[in-house]
Amino acid sequence: MEPLDHFPGTHIKIKEQSDLYFGGTAYLGLQTNPSFQKCYKENIDRYGTHYGASRNANVQIAIYAEAEQKLKEITASQAAITLSSGYLAGQILAAFFSDSDYTLFYTRESHSALYQKKIPAYASFGELRLALEKHLSTKESTPVIFMDTLENPEASYPEFDALRDLPLSECILVADDSHGFGVMGKEGTGAYPILTQFKPKDLLVCFSMGKAIGIPAGAVAGSKRMINQLAKSEIYGAASPASPAGLATFVQSLVLIWEKNQQLKGLTEYFLALLEQKHVFRFIPGQPAFAYKDLGLTEYLRRQNVLVTHFHYPNEQSEPTSRIVLTAAHSKAEISHLAQLINQYFHGH
């Protein structure tokens, strides 16, 4: 497929043909939303296209503290900091915990953003529990558990039953909620309010603000003590911050974001009601993404001018990722058409 010269919204124009697109991560459809774009453009006029100074510089821009206050309120955390991307939000945590005071434990499907060096992940939460218990009985360093809130099926969002048997009161829990924030939880709050109920020694949740919210930024939510320590780190002080125009647009668009969150929930329920072969897909209730392994379905949809996510992720050696992604920008008619095609495929066309 040739590179595009436009953003892939609900349609992708390839040469003279327009294909329906159900891929990517623009969950709330804000990147192409006229009201959101208008707000963003106005904020670029006010704040410029980029702000490259350190967050610790003598000149401070007020929107950072305002946006972080909103993130704190949305996640129900004690504090939050923003960074230029979700990947950097993961990296600042991986770097912070990479000294001898901590020992790192990774669950399956942890994103590469959470690694400073390659450490084997535990195949199951049962194996992780045994390793943690052994470590706590012999070592003095604090265990830090890294996990993804949605990508590991064993974690079992939103109940997170797999966490119940872990000695969390003696462990720091780091959770990547990049595909959850803005989409999952009550009104898009993500996983933080759920995970805090497990009472870990400390809880830090990092996430991208690009996937649901549509701005180039990332964030970390946690306790005041931990967030203050992260704000003193070299990465935080040396890296360029998120664009203030993007953060201002986030703050000013909270009502629109909530509306799109509710709209997406309705569209996801509508799709599931139409879908006959639900068991073919791996999905979490409420999540607008439906993974599957049937290459024939991808090829069939492609012949019907419907394009879905299908590529090797995160590298060429990985198994192909195939998934259908719904967004708040899709219409009911488009989703109905998709469901009809899927049903036809499993009925033998």
UniProtKB/TrEMBL annotation:
One of its GO terms (molecular function) is pyridoxal phosphate binding. Pfam families: Aminotran_1_2. Keywords: Aminotransferase, Transferase. It comes from the Bacteria. Its cofactor is pyridoxal 5'-phosphate. InterPro entries: Aminotransferase_I/II_large (IPR004839), AON_synthase_class-II (IPR050087), MACPF_CS (IPR020863), PyrdxlP-dep_Trfase (IPR015424), PyrdxlP-dep_Trfase_major (IPR015421), PyrdxlP-dep_Trfase_small (IPR015422). Residues 26-340 form the Aminotransferase class I/classII large domain. PANTHER family: CLASS II AMINOTRANSFERASE/8-AMINO-7-OXONONANOATE SYNTHASE, LD36009P. This is Aminotransferase class I/II-fold pyridoxal phosphate-dependent enzyme. It comes from Lentiprolixibacter aurantiacus. The lineage of its organism: Bacteria, Pseudomonadati, Bacteroidota, Flavobacteriia, Flavobacteriales.
